[in-house]
Amino acid sequence: MPPFPSQAEVEETLKRIQSQNGVQGIIIVNTEGIPIKTTLDNASTVQYAGLIHQLVMKARSTVRDIDPQNDLTFLRVRSKKNEIMIAPDKDAFSNKTSFLLY
Amino acid sequence: MKKSSLVFNSSSRAMNTSVAGHQVSQSSRHKWNFAGSQTRRNSILVGGSNRKRNILDRNANQAPRKPVRVLDNDGNDVTPLPLYHAEPGDMPSKPGRFLDEIFSSSESDQLKSTSSFNMRSFGSFLGSSLPSSLSTTASMTKGTEDSVPKLDIPIIPPPPCGQRKRDNVKQHVTEEMLDDVVDVCLTETDTISLFDLPPLIFMSEDADDTKAIKERNLQYAELCKNRTGNDKYVERSMQTFSGAPKEKQIQTDKIVMVDEGSTIGSLLEMETCSLNAESNPELIMLTESFQHSLLVMERSIVANLFQPKLAAYRQLPIIKDPDSTVKPETEEKSEEGEESSSSPTLERLWAFSCELTRGWNITCMVWNKENPDLLAVAYGDCDSTNQKPSLICCWSLKNPTWPERVFHCHSCVTSLDFSANNPSQLAVGMYDGTIAIYTVQSRNNIHCIANSSECSKRHLKPVWQVNWSKQEITLSGEDRVEALVAVSADGRITKWLLCSNGLECIDLMKLKKTKNSKKKAVESKKKTEHMGSALTPGLCMDFHPTDSSVYLVGTWEGLIQKCSVANCHNVLETYQNHFCPVNSIEWSPFSPDVFLSCSSDWTIQLWKQECLTPVLSFTSAQRAVYAVRWSPNWSTIFAAINGLQVEIWDLNLSILHPTIVHQAAPGVTVTSVLFSRGTDCVLVGDSEGQVTVYQLKNLSVGQGKQVDSLEDIIGSAVSRYL
After folding, report:
1. Tens digit of each residue's pLDDT (9 = 90 or more) over B591-623
2. DSSP letter assigned to residue B80
3. In B, which residues are within 8 Å of A88 by CB distance?
4. CATH number, domain at A43?
5. Exposed e or buried b for every residue in B440-463, given b needs 16+ CB within 10 A?
6. pLDDT digits over B128-160, tens only?
7. Residue B720 and residue B313: Cα distance in Å, rounded?
8. Which of B158, B232, B377, B553 could form a disulfide with B143 if both were Cys (CB 3.0 to 4.6 A apart)?
9. Is residue B709 classed as helix, strand or coil in its secondary structure?
10. Number of structural domains, chain A?
11. Which chain B residues touch A78 with a CB distance below 8 Å?
């Protein structure tokens, strides 16, 4: 069992993502939809977290309804102005989900 | 004043046969609570009901009651008959109505007191008499002449003929009678059993001990019966002594109490504390699945940014971003650019570079044999004076902004090669002679599997090239064993094996210096320099693509030796043409007999295996050619770098001039070149730590058979000689 990567590596990766061209913000949420880390302001974070959580649930249930062996791995919502990328956790609805605004 | 005495008989079992009838001369207005010792408890129930009846009676003005009839299940009339039939002559002057009760009841008691009714004879159920006497009212119903030894149901319909009794006893209380002194004697009456519940333990008839239990029950009943008049049984009273209490003291250990306090920082913490430990934000971020999510996220973003480039690389149609706001100026520029570039050119797609690698000199680049998206690049300065640490980065095409793996080496890395059998193993040859094997599989595991630093026969001079080569099929017929072969500046070609201790080596060949009359003075000077050793440094090597026992080695002297794995003393062939160190050598992937070599003498030579002189020779710039690579996709194209420029030669078009010449940026030297399989891109590494990906554009490569075209060219060239 490999040892856990250091906290620093994770932070570094997050920083890299944040510094990519065009990335507006990152939100990390846990199972209940409570944001645990964010680079946006509070109000937006809460709004996004609440709305997107439901969307992810719906998408996941859709995927699983069509084929119970299948599972949602990534979700991208593209709009005129932005793109939201959502990476739900594998045992999702169970620990964390990170969203990204791009 | 008349005296009247009332004699009350208590009903007890012992007095069964006592007085039959009593005369009660006078009534009394005293209220008596007749208290049979056993009957008080149960009688209240009945008394209540009787009271109601009494009230009813009164209200109804003692209207005559209809006789009650009781029917059992079969419709038989089981109305209890009155036990006492009052005769008109009897008791003419009954003083108190309630006394009637008593007498009648006592009579009936005597008759009935020992009878026992069980539940089945419900029908022969009688109204209660005595309990009614407990009612506080003087008027009592006369209907209760029969006593009920057993009561199953508290409410009991009054037996008939109460009316008669009432008539007999009705009497007016006169003034004189009130002044009379009445003597009242109290005696104990018979025991009236008002309630007897038989044991409700239902025994199944099948049980083995049913009979025994029944017998025992009968025995006990007998015993109880016999007890009453028996001399053996004497009543006796007892008293228990209660001793004086005494005080006694004890002592316990003190219960230690500790105060403990904790604080809760913020609301978020409180919420997360209530969940299990996994929900701790710090821990969440360290879990593997989160890492994976991050990885995917990063790649997606990068894919967004690099999408056009990556599409071009993979030869997919480039879809224009419908939402992007492209300014019209840039569109014009791109149009112009397109028009002018109809000639073959290199188009820059992107560059692998990051903060970590900026400024490093690239020494080697190699693709992974299994995953064509993985690229390993070695960064380092080959400086013989001081050993500088160097870097190996594994890049993935999916993320050109950050390497997937980063390894640090203590010495400058000169050569890399991925293994074909174990695609995650990367062989590294270093400037100080160390050979190491790294694994790129996991991010967190130990990277360096094996190191040659403990081998006694290790190289002490720089290892210029390492190669994994599939050797002969093993005896077991399984996958061909792969051998790691290295060529080093100390003139030895060694084959390395991975043992439990580390790497062990076997000498395959020693490159001996050859005396050759054709050598120039420069060569002999070099020879004297290496007087100490009889071996000449080998700079490059390549295994034959089909016959893996044969390999070529390029030496410092400019000789190309064709050697065999089996023969470690003699070379098979010597190709001599270069008079400067041979920097790079490569077999053609399409034509098995053809190989290219390049040297510091500004030339690139094309050889055929059988011919000891080169078939074709290429020169373009007057600079040493550091590397030459065949294109894996087209047989007539190869790339060469000479420090300031990248040259792409297309032998179909011209054998005199390179088709594409790409100048490096000023101040930057191009140090490494690599073609990518399956796509028309070439990677160029430079001294600034950038690996730039170029796409070959407008190269009119024919669709015809690759081998044939090369053969044709060679054939025509050979024919020219002859």
Report:
1. 888 889 999 888 898 888 888 888 888 888 888
2. P
3. 293
4. 3.30.450.30
5. beeeeeebebbbbeebeebbebbb
6. 444 444 443 333 444 344 444 444 444 445 454
7. 39
8. B158
9. helix
10. 1
11. 323
In a domain, A81, yes or no: yes
Residue B309 sits at the chain A interface (C-beta within 8 Å): no
Does the pLDDT value for residue B19 go beyond 50? no
| Residues of the domain holding A76 | 7-101
Q: Which residues of B touch A90 (CB under 8 A)?
A: 289, 292
In this complex, is the C-beta atom of B272 within 8 Å of any C-beta atom belonging to chain A?
Answer: yes
CB contact under 8 A, A16 and B290: no
The minimal CB distance from A87 to the residues B293, B305, B444 is found for B293
What confidence tier does B457 reach under pLDDT thresholds 50, 70, 90? confident
B270 CB within 8 Å of a chain A CB: no
Residue at A46 is within a domain? yes
Could you give the percent of chain B with pLDDT greater than 90?
2
Has residue B712 got a pLDDT over 70? yes
- Indicate yes or no: CB of A91 within 8 angstroms of CB of B290: no
In a domain, A55, yes or no: yes
The answer to whether the Cβ–Cβ distance between B284 and A30 falls below 8 Å is yes
Tens digits of per-residue pLDDT, B264-305? 655 555 454 444 444 566 666 667 778 888 888 888 888 888
Q: Quick one: tokens of B520?
A: 């120039």
Q: What are the CA-CA distances from residue B162 to residues A40, B69, B143, B666 (Å)? A: 99, 14, 3, 138
- Give the chain B residue nearest A86 (alpha carbons): B297
Query: B298, A96: Cβ pair inside 8 Å?
Result: no
Give the count of Cβ contacts less than 8 A between chain A and B. Answer: 101
CA B671 – CA B666 distance, rounded (Å):
14
Domain assignment present for residue A1? The answer is no
Residue B103's contacts (CB-CB under 8 Å, 6 or more residues apart) are B21, B22, B24, B91
- For residue B323, the chain A residue with the least C-alpha distance is A80
Residue B269 contacts A where some CB pair is shorter than 8 Å: no
Residues 6+ apart with CB under 8 A from B244: none
